[in-house]
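Pilot study result, target chain (362 residues):
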Amino acid sequence: MAHIVLDARGYFTTTGRYIRKLVEWLAREDDDNIYTLVLPADRLEEWTPPSPRFRAVGSDAPFFSWAEQTKLARLLRSLRPDVVHFCMQQQPLLLGIPRITTFHDLTLLKIRNHKKTPIVSILRRLIGAFAFAVAAHRGRSNLVVSRYSATDLRRFTGVPRNKIVLTYPAADFITETPVSVPVPFERFILFVGNQVPYKNLERLDAAVAQVRRTRPDVGLVVAGRIDDDGRRIIARRPELARRTHFTGYVTDAELRWLYEHASVFAFPSFFEGFGLPGLEAMRHGCPVASSSATCLPEVYGDAARYFPPADVERMAEAISQILDDETLRDELVSRGLRRAEEYSWERMATQTLAVYRRAVEE
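Predicted structure:
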């Protein structure tokens, strides 16, 4: 029996679906080890242990903070684990405990944070590059969610190939009964996610504007909370509101309705580690038009119509083809359903458990 600690401070975030599914399937698959989750201290009472072998402790250490390097490190040492799994790449550098890290992507090292000054953004990337390299080299293993992420990890950190393990996530079918969302268009293109610049929402809006010239019944629906980046886009481009409907926060039941009623799911991102929303759309029978950047062709295979993310004309053409060609649409729906079935949370958890066991044996 080993004691495994999961740094699960991201448990209640969007990215936390990976952590939640990992915990769910570890509880089903592992009858040997005991687990302690480190959760946000102010949300500790919201968590229910999936089995008696799981417990949780709280931490108020924010990501990328001095408290993470000091208070969190002390907390982890006090738990006396056999191995610590950092479910996101942020972590204390000086720990003295065997560690495993999941690197979802290295977008932080590639893009400028426009919320910060240029100097602060550059310093943040330099510190991030150093911290990620230290974590990758000190870890017993490093988990990645796509082959593209593995290539990025080796390129930015120089970690050897034999310390990287690929564990693909998966997409669930939303089982809640669909709840309709008021949409002011007869047909709509769906975008799900935040509005940070690399998600490429402005070019998608420009592409939809081209589509609407000959298809005025079509509009863009953006599902999810409007963040600071979204508010800046709306303030800078007020005409965007005429062809774009922002739903705000949606429940899973409402998200299912949107997937099942959208004419096209559009994923124009410049950078992704896995691209879960497109796979979720496929799971619900929605045809996908996707950026050809980073990991997306690897994950979606032949189940999407691709476009270069910087090319508005090609983006509009891909969306228009799906809207106009019923045969293509049916093919993408069929391929998408098959593609989504190829990914499994159970397999991801089983592969992760094997990594834990090797780390403990070492």
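One observation from the pilot: The domain at 3-170+344-361 is CATH 3.40.50.2000 (Rossmann fold). A full batch analysis is planned for the follow-on phase.
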